[in-house]
Amino acid sequence: MSFMGCKFGSVVTRVVAGLLCFICVGCSAETDELAVEPTLPVGAHLVNLDWENADFVLPVDGYAMSAGERGVVFAAQNVVYTRCLTGLSEVSTVELARSQVMMNTPHTYGRPRLFFGEWDAGYGAAHGYEIGGTDFSIHMWGTVASVLENDQVRCSSDPVLLTMIPAGVAAIFGDDPAADALTRLYNDSIQQVQHDSRYAPLSAAMGECLLKSGYRLSPQGRGQDYPSMGVEVNPAWSTEQQLAAQVVSATCNDQLGVQQTLVDLMAAYQLQVIEPNKAEYVAIRAEMQTRVDKAYEILREVGLE
């Protein structure tokens, strides 16, 4: 099977937790070359903002695993991996899997969702802007002194484990064409928005709003060719002072409708690629569902679902 020009059947994946993969090697869809600045609908939005959780759902999210699904897949991987690696008892294996499911719920992963500076001032004032989430990883890695490296390699290459690669829109395992196609679309849409003609005026408006409260935009990062959208925070400030600046920035963002405009643009750029390639993305989602189903099957085997 192929996804966006990439062959999936030949994948041999080395599991390395925490590795971010941003490029789909061999993919045929060059979204950055094909993109045309989209026209946004008048009086409507392509993306609904979740003001309770500082979250939103983009078109590409519908084809990836949800945070909850990734937690289930990691739990199943832990069962397979720990059995192979250490021969843990049935009880220990189940408890390890249970901890993964409990940690990786949709409510503990990836909140708030920040791409273009702080937004949702109400959320920030109540919860802060620390990015949520857990360390999606195989717990036993590097923690058992008696485990030999060749055993780790052998167990990480277990064919059952490799049928359950977790995949969100920011893939954490390399050499996975299905996930890479999603990651590429996700990252391309961010870059396209940053270079859209509507981005710089919004940044300028943010700068003017922040100045009225005694703050300023964060300076342009090294290598960036687009302006900043977030507030400059002095590392010497206390946690309370930093949060106060972020809430002011979020208030400006909310009042100007910056976040809404930018995520609508992200969605529009993504749809330019998804709509003419719908069958490819439906196939990717089917592959994601197969992995999730396999994970549930493993969890049922140890009495956990």
Ordered list of secondary-structure elements with their pairings:
Layout: E1 2-3, E2 6-7, H1 31-34, E3 49-50, E4 55-56, H2 67-86, H3 90-103, H4 121-127, H5 149-156, H6 159-162, H7 177-194, H8 199-212, H9 239-256, H10 258-274, H11 278-301
Helix pairs in contact: 2-3, 2-5, 2-11, 4-9, 7-10, 8-9
Task: Walk me through the structure.
This protein has 305 residues and is mainly α. The chain has one domain. The chain is built from eleven helices and four strands; from the N terminus they run E-E-H-E-E-H-H-H-H-H-H-H-H-H-H. A two-stranded antiparallel sheet has the order 1-2. Strands 3-4 form a two-stranded antiparallel ribbon. A hairpin with a 2-residue loop joins strand 1 and strand 2. Helix 2 packs across helix 11. The longest helix has 24 residues, at 278-301. The model is unreliable at 1-32, 104-109 and 133-146 (pLDDT under 50).
Q: Summarize this, please?
A:
Helices cover 49% and strands 3% of the residues. With 305 residues, the chain is an all-alpha fold.
Question: Span between N and C termini?
Answer: 29 Å
Strand content: under 5%
Overall shape: it is globular
Radius of gyration, CA atoms, in whole angstroms: 21 Å
Judged by helices, strands and strand pairing, the structural class is mainly alpha
E-strand count: 4
DSSP summary: helix tally? 11
- Give the proportion of residues in helices: 40-55%
Number of domain units: 1
- Mean pLDDT, as a whole number? 76
Q: Which strands sit side by side, in order, in the main sheet?
A: 1-2
Low-confidence parts: 1-32, 104-109, 133-146
Order of helices and strands: EEHEEHHHHHHHHHH
Largest sheet: 2 strands, antiparallel
